[in-house]
Amino acid sequence: MTAEIIDGKAFAETVKARVGRQVEALKKNHDFTPGLAVVLVGEDPASQVYVRNKNKSTVAAGMKSEEIRLADTVSEEEVLAVVHRLNDDPTIHGILVQLPLPKQVDEMAVLDAINPEKDVDGFHVINTGRQAVGLPAMVPCTPLGCIMMLKDRLGDLSGLNAVVVGRSNIVGKPMASLLLAENCTVTIAHSRTKDLPAVVRGADIVVAAVGRPEMVRGDWIKPGATVIDVGINRIEGENGKTRLVGDVAFDEAKAVAGAITPVPGGVGPMTIACLLANTVTAACRQAGLEEPQV
Ligand SMILES: Nc1nc(=O)c2c([nH]1)NC[C@@H]1CN(c3ccc(C(=O)N[C@@H](CCC(=O)O)C(=O)O)cc3)C=[N+]21
C-alpha cells in the first residue's frame, strides 16, 4: 500500500482564495479592510522567510499588512510598546509576534500583552482557555490547519484514536485540545513517554510535532493511519546542500499510512492560510460584522 499524499499547498490555495473573496465582500459592502501586523525580532533567515510569506499572502488576499522589524538586542519594554501601539490601532485587527523571541524578552509577558481579540495566533491564555471550554476563541493556526486537512480526508473524527507526539504550547497542547473537541480519543506523547512506538501504533491519526528530524519511523505507523507531519527541520543532505524534512521518516511512513502530509507543502502552507482566515474572523468580530459566507 502507498499512502495518499495530502496536498497542503493546494488546500491552502483554496482557503486563501475564499479569504480573498470574503475580504472583497467586506470592502464592497462595508467599506472595511481587515489588517494584520507581524512583529519580527532579529535576523533569523528562516523566520524572515516565514514573515515575508505571511506578508505576501496577506496583501494577495486584499488585506492591510504591516511588518515591524526589531533588532535582536531590543528590550522587553520596546516590544511591549509596539504591542500596545498595535492594540490601540483601529486599522489593525490581527497581531502576530513571531516566536521565538531573544532571551532578554519574556515571551509569556509579550503574548499576555496582546489584546485577545487581536490574537490571531491564538496563543493568549484567554483564547487557550476559551477554546478548552468550548467558547468562541481565536484558535492557533497550525493546529487549525491540521484539523482542516484531517476533516477533509476523514470526515467525522469522532471516536478515532489520535496520538499527538509533542506537548508544546504552540502546537502539541492546542492540537490535542482541538482533537478532543472533535471527539477523538486523544493521547499526548512526549520525551518521557514509555514505549513511544507502541503508543503511536495504536493511532488512527498521528500528529508529529516534536522538532526532531524523521523521528517517527514507518514501523510505528498503523496500516491505513492518517499522518500529519508538523516538523520543519533543515538537515544536511548527501550533496552538502540543506534539505527540509519533517518529524516523520516520510518514505517509510508513506508505505504504511493511508494518507500523509509532505514537508514542505503540507502543514506549513495551511498555517499561513489559517492565519489569514483568523485575521478575517478577528476583524469581523471586532467590527461587529458577520463573517461573509463566500
Ligand atoms: N507567533 C508565531 N506564529 C507562528 O505561526 C510561527 C511562529 N511564531 N514562529 C515560527 C513558526 C514557523 N511557522 C511556519 C509557517 C509557515 C511555513 C511554511 O509555509 N512552510 C513551507 C515552506 C518552508 C520553507 O521552504 O522554508 C512549507 O512547509 O511548505 C513554515 C513555518 C510559523 N510559525
TrEMBL record:
Residue ranges constituting the Tetrahydrofolate dehydrogenase/cyclohydrolase catalytic domain according to the UniProt record: 6-121
Pfam families: THF_DHG_CYH, THF_DHG_CYH_C
Catalytic activity: (6R)-5,10-methenyltetrahydrofolate + H2O = (6R)-10-formyltetrahydrofolate + H(+); (6R)-5,10-methylene-5,6,7,8-tetrahydrofolate + NADP(+) = (6R)-5,10-methenyltetrahydrofolate + NADPH
UniProt keyword annotation of Amino-acid biosynthesis present: yes
Function field: Catalyzes the oxidation of 5,10-methylenetetrahydrofolate to 5,10-methenyltetrahydrofolate and then the hydrolysis of 5,10-methenyltetrahydrofolate to 10-formyltetrahydrofolate.
Gene name for this UniProt entry: folD
Record carries keyword Disulfide bond: no
UniProt keywords, alphabetically: Amino-acid biosynthesis, Histidine biosynthesis, Hydrolase, Methionine biosynthesis, Multifunctional enzyme, NADP, One-carbon metabolism, Oxidoreductase, Purine biosynthesis
Annotated organism of origin: Sneathiella chinensis
Name of the protein this chain belongs to: Bifunctional protein FolD
Ranges that cross the membrane: none
